[in-house]
TrEMBL record:
The keyword Cytoplasm does not apply. SUPFAM superfamilies: Ribosomal protein L6 (SSF56053). InterPro entries: Ribosomal_uL6-like, Ribosomal_uL6-like_a/b-dom_sf, Ribosomal_uL6_a/b-dom, Ribosomal_uL6_bac-type, Ribosomal_uL6_CS. GO terms for biological process: cytoplasmic translation. Keywords: Ribonucleoprotein, Ribosomal protein, RNA-binding, rRNA-binding. One of its GO terms (cellular component) is cytosolic large ribosomal subunit. This protein binds to the 23S rRNA, and is important in its secondary structure. It is located near the subunit interface in the base of the L7/L12 stalk, and near the tRNA binding site of the peptidyltransferase center. HAMAP family: Ribosomal_uL6_B. This is Large ribosomal subunit protein uL6. GO terms for molecular function: rRNA binding; structural constituent of ribosome. The keyword Ribonucleoprotein applies. Part of the 50S ribosomal subunit. Residues 11-82, 91-163 form the Large ribosomal subunit protein uL6 alpha-beta domain.
Amino acid sequence: MSRVGKYPVAVPAGVTVSVKDGVFLAQGKLGELRLPLSKDIETTVDGSTVSVKPVTETKQARAMWGTTRALINNMVKGVSTGFTRKLEINGVGYRADVQGKVVKLKLGYSHDIDYALPEGITVVAEKPTLLAISGADRQKVGQVAAEIRRFRGPEPYKGKGIKFEEETILRKEGKKK
C-alpha cells in the first residue's frame, strides 16, 4: 500500500499557502487555486511545508490522506510553474488556430470546430499542427486537452487525428489482396 500522504509538500519561494474554514488556498505568480478539504483530513502549514494526516483510521480517511496530499502538491506546483500538455495534429489539411479565447480546428469535417477555452487556460499554436495547452490547474489542463483530442482521435491505419505529443499510436496493417 502506498504511503504518499506521509511526505510533506515543500512550498517554493513566491508561493503562499493557507488553510482557512476547511479550504486550502495556494497563491503564486500563475494565479490562485482553492481546494475544499475533507473533514477526515487534518492539514497543517509549517513555514515552507504543508503536512497532511488523517484524523481517524477509517478507510475513507486513509484514502483521502494520499489524495489530498497529491492535490495540494499539484496546486503548489501549478501556481509556481504551471502545467502543459501538447497535442499533435496529423492529417492532410488538419490544422488549428487560436483566436483570442477560441481554438478553431479544421479536422476534415464539413465545418470548422470552435472550442471556447475555460477561464485560467491558455493555448498557443506553436505550429498549425502543434497545440500547447497550459495553466495552473492540472485537472483543467488535462480536461481541455482530452476534450480537444476527442474531436478527432487518432486512427490506427494512417495515424490521422489529434494525439498527445508523448502518445504512441499502435499502427495496424491495411487490407491485403
